[in-house]
């Protein structure tokens, strides 16, 4: 993941250069953003968000999908390559469409799943996905990322929930293989007190890498009852809370750097991942204190990362731009919170966030999403990243169930 983040953050950091587990205080109601609350009558029979999800998929089919059922990185600078987590994210998006009742997305979802086998490391007994391949699936090699494999495992568990028979079994089996690679990779070690390295180069240990691992281990334990997954979830959770939690903000910081220093920038999507991780960990351990932890992170995000004047989550505390995938991830987390506690305020944030992204980053001429822009649209990039389109398809169909 973050395949293009470091170039952006290098600029951000130049401009910005200028241990124990702390209990979380009880949840307080978040400040309601200026978004119309749900209900009230008169809402359309077909959600505008479902319409937009389908329009986004139309852009994807026309501009990014290949005859192999792989997906291009983007339409401009890298149209001949495929990134692992971009393709996994499209499976995630299609699984959400199937979950919403549209089985026409199953065929392409399953074909992309089969194409993904090209990126699996067949020379390693433990496998693991490489990060990059050509569009035909050839040329996969090099670095393997823990967060790519952790997220992909979670994607497959979503697909598992909307499929049947041999397909259902295949998705579960591959999710377990992703977890097996994490476990046997040797990338969880005692450096900085534990935690997974970002990738096989062993340079940084980020929150999001460990957060998606926590999600995968927790959900696999819920599904299979295999205590190995629960044990790993407990270990990863302990490291995150002892090393990455910032008690001042109530949020989780970015990562341990190669120098051993902790980078305390706070990202929206890191904390969105932690919300989902805690909700799953609560189920895996039968400990509702982690539901409260998830709610507390949601409240803290709405204090620290929500830009009220623009009604949107910022990229991070050092870069107040917006971007579809990484800012949009918060919408998924807020929907998951609403599904847990029925507090409609979470949906207000989820909706406001997508509305702002649609206003600033969606091109109405072709229904594609630009990669980055300032809060008011200034400095908008002109490239269309595949992962941004996939996530906007997914998030809008998720929201369409409620709005």
TrEMBL record:
Keyword terms of this UniProt record: Signal
Signal peptide coordinates: 1-21
Top-level lineage group: Bacteria
Keyword hit for Flavoprotein: no
InterPro entries given in the database record: 6-hairpin_glycosidase_sf (IPR008928), Glyco_hydro_76 (IPR005198), MUG_Protein (IPR053169)
Protein's UniProt keywords contain Signal: yes
Full protein name: Glycosyl hydrolase family 76
Originating organism: Mucilaginibacter pankratovii
